[in-house]
Amino acid sequence: MPGRIAQENHGASIVLEHRFFGLSNPYPDLSDKSLAVHTLENAIDDLVYFANNVKLPFPNDLQDPSQVGPDKVPWILVGGSYPGALTSWTMVARPGVFHAGWSSSGVVEAITYYWGYFEPIRQNMPMNCSADIQQVISYIDSKGIYGTESEKQLLKSKFGMPNVTYYDDFASTLRNQLWTWQSISPVDGREEFNAFCDSLEVKDGVAAGPGGWGLENALDAWGAYETQWVATNCPGSVSQDGCFGTYDPTLAYYHNTKVDQVWRSWFWLW
After folding, report:
1. Mind listing the pLDDT tens digit for each residue in 158-198?
2. Is 110 left (phi over 0), alpha (psi -120 to 50) or beta?
């Protein structure tokens, strides 16, 4: 979309890497001391500083680099999700630098337990898929509250995660398939969200009606899908707790301070 906007307006599209993500680090690690400058205020100032100081590599016969700053031509700040929020905050905190801002799905209010994120998915996905998903989640939740340890272990095994120690860590992986709604697009020729729903709702070439196939089939189908497409994402050298667990304080997830640890940078920011 930024490229399309630029093309339609005969402009250039510039993509910046956010401080402390990837290799864009002012310090050589992600220690607490380094991350002290990983703030929203500094992220906003980075955008403003870049716009005011960058020397863009335009060929001289096409454009004079001194004539393309935000004080000479309109710059439009664009972002989606957190970058959308950053766009909104920048426009408010540093008015007058950017000509306009487009915040797509800007998360301007951070909410820790935001169950509402899943509501548009539940309401707008195919009805049969929604019906079966709700049955499965209700069943797994009930077993988490009232089930025996052996029943919980059987469910973890059915979903390809027998070695995930804590049941809630296993249950949280069910969100993975729903998250793919956010970016419905082909990945290596396979569109994830619809492929997931098809795996639940299509049997022998026949799709279920609006009510789905029912709990028993949905458990088996979702379990097979997660075993194939989620559990296998864990490298052989890493335990399942290392991939999907959250309780072990020694996990690299928590203490790896090398650069390019996206989740450490992300959790610090929020």
Report:
1. 999 999 999 999 999 999 999 888 777 655 545 789 999 99
2. beta
- Which of 82-86, 218-222, 230-234 has the least mean pLDDT? 230-234
Distances (CA, A) of 51 to 5, 6, 95, 152: 18, 16, 13, 54
The Cα–Cα gap between 201 and 128 comes to 7
- Does the reported pTM lie above 0.85? no
- State the pLDDT at residue 189: 47
The three-state (H, E, C) secondary structure of the chain, written as one string: CHHHHHHHCCCCCCCCCCCCCCCCCCCCCCCHHHHCCCCHHHHHHHHHHHHHHCCCCCCCCCCCHHHCCCCCCCCEEEEECHHHHHHHHHHHHCCCCCCEEEEECCCCCCCCCCHHHHHHHHHHCCHHHHHHHHHHHHHHHHHHHHCCHHHHHHHHHHCCCCCCCCHHHHHHCCHHHHHHHHHCCEECCEEHHHHHHHHHHEECCEECCCCCCCHHHHHHHHHHHHHHHCHHHCCCCCCHHHHHCCCCCCCHHHHCCCCCCHHHHHHHHC
Q: How far apart are CA 247 and CA 241, in angstroms?
A: 9
> Would the pLDDT of 234 be above 80?
yes
What are the residues whose beta carbons fall under 8 Å from the beta carbon of 263, sequence distance 6 or more?
253
Q: Calculate mean pLDDT across residues 148-161.
A: 97
How high does pLDDT run on average in the chain?
Answer: 90
Can you tell me the distance from the alpha carbon of 81 to that of 108, in angstroms, rounded to the nearest whole number?
9
